Amino acid sequence: MNNDLQLSLEQTDIDGFQNDLITWFKEEQRSLPWRENKDPYRVWVSEIMLQQTRVDTVIPYFNRFMEWFPTLDAFAEADEEKMLKAWEGLGYYSRVRNLHTAVKEVKESYGGAVPDDPKGISALKGVGPYTAGAILSIAYGKPEPAVDGNVMRVLSRILLIREDIAKPKTRKTFEEAVRALISHEDPSSFNQGLMELGALICTPGKPACLLCPVRNHCQAFEAGIQSELPIKIQKKKSRDVPLVSAILTNEKGEILIHKRPSSGLLANLWEFPNFEMQTTLQPKRDFYAGRFLEAYGAKPLMGDHLVKIEHIFSHLVWKVDTYTGCMDSPLDEEVMQANQLRWASLQDLEEYAFPVSNQKMLKAYVEREEE
User: I need a surface site. Which of 58, 101, 104, 160 has the fewest CB within 10 A?
Assistant: First the structure.
């Protein structure tokens, strides 16, 4: 433990901080579906969903997920298509793939019981220090730290921690801080209280200090610098990727879809065939038709511009121009199979998992067709 943290902790009334935080949490906590009980499977699913996703967004996904896969065993037996469909729209699909792999391991190696020790649970795929700490403390009542962005923001202010929270090594400092502060009588309420405080009151920018139940323990508030913390050095800017896509139909009115590769970004999700736009003087429509011919041996008849979609990932931004079009000659079956292409009716498309960007394209297409 570094000297600055040690000094801050020595200046903190730890018992008072625990009591004020836990009392507030028990009185003011939001009613959330994953708090209905402390089933480790439900806690686990909710924590994975909540990574990089807002609570309000997660609630309907969590409810549907539990309706489809109410138990760990039910999810372990799910096929990939249904698994991805359950996650459709939440993004960061590696989360659900890792969760599925880990759940199957729990079923096979632990008899369906989620491990209740740091070593066992941390060995599961996709379970990092935060998720492990959240499950162990919330579901099993173990005094383990669960350090996420909310917790780092709260404790950087409470303890006047000036380390850059964007650096991975800084997490160690906050984990040490939580270990020193956590209630051993009620670690579940303590950890959830820190998370809830960060979500509702100790927010980014200007926190609602006058409403804060632990304001009297906050060293940043006392110094008048709460809005300057936490320190987070901005990451590099993301890269723009210009794409051209098309919703292509055949003589039956079916729509052509393409399955993405089994690894990498949005692995195994379905999409409308698209190509990254190269530097060219060609109109986008002509560029798309030419690239489609090169890739699949047939040339589509391009229609009107449908919609422009911008979709932001952590490291890049897709800027997609989407057109309508049709195939006046059939695609070779072997080419379709080799390139993971498939024709599907509008109704059938509901069974396939699409990225958010493609859901927006389809919505624009359906709305135009209904005009």
Answer: 101
Q: For 22-28, which contacts have Cβ atoms below 8 Å and span 24 or more sequence positions?
A: 22/183, 22/186, 22/189, 22/190, 22/193, 23/213, 24/193, 24/197, 24/213, 24/214, 25/189, 25/192, 25/193, 25/196, 25/197, 26/189, 28/196, 28/200
pLDDT in tens, 253-282: 999 999 999 888 999 999 999 999 988 788
Whole-prediction pTM: 0.83
Q: What is the pLDDT of residue 314?
A: 80
Residue 221 burial by CB count (10 A; 0-12/13-18/19+): exposed, middle or buried?
buried
Q: Is 234 within a domain?
A: no
Point out the residues of the chain with pLDDT beneath 70.
none
Q: Whole-angstrom Cα distance, residue 102 to residue 123?
A: 9
Number of domains in the chain: 2
Both 203 and 253 in a single domain? no
Is residue 20 situated within a structural domain? yes
Same domain, 160 and 193: yes
* 179 and 302 inside one domain: no
Q: Identify the active-site residue in 27, 36, 47, 80.
A: 47
In a domain, 117, yes or no: yes
Q: What is the pLDDT of residue 46?
A: 97
Contact 300, 246 (CB under 8 A): yes
Containing structural domain, residue 243: 239-370
Q: Are residues 332 and 217 in the same domain?
A: no
The predicted pLDDT at position 231 comes to 93
pLDDT of residue 168: 87
Tell me the CATH number at 322.
3.90.79.10
